[in-house]
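Might you be able to check the backbone structure tokens below? Thank you kindly.
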Amino acid sequence: MDGAVEMPITLSTLLASIDTSIPNPTNAVLIKEFYNFMKAGSTSESDQKNNLKTVISFGKWLGNNMTLYEITKKEQIIAFLDTKIEH
């Protein structure tokens, strides 16, 4: 570890990053709709941030050629989660 302190990301920063970091516009729209769903359900800001970090990362991993609508098998999600395991 280099001793650097990671600054916590704000919810507004996460939301602003959706359009610039998600290569597939359909996925960007779906992630925004997911945020609105969480907000309407009275989830905490901490939960919203953690969930958004995960789905934004998943959206980046999917790239431009696959939408979230096309995820139909658990193996597709497991392949993404496998990239997050530290060896």
Q: What stands out?
A: Residues 21 and 60 are 7 Å apart (CA to CA). The mean pLDDT is 92. The longest helix spans residues 45-62. The radius of gyration is 14 Å.
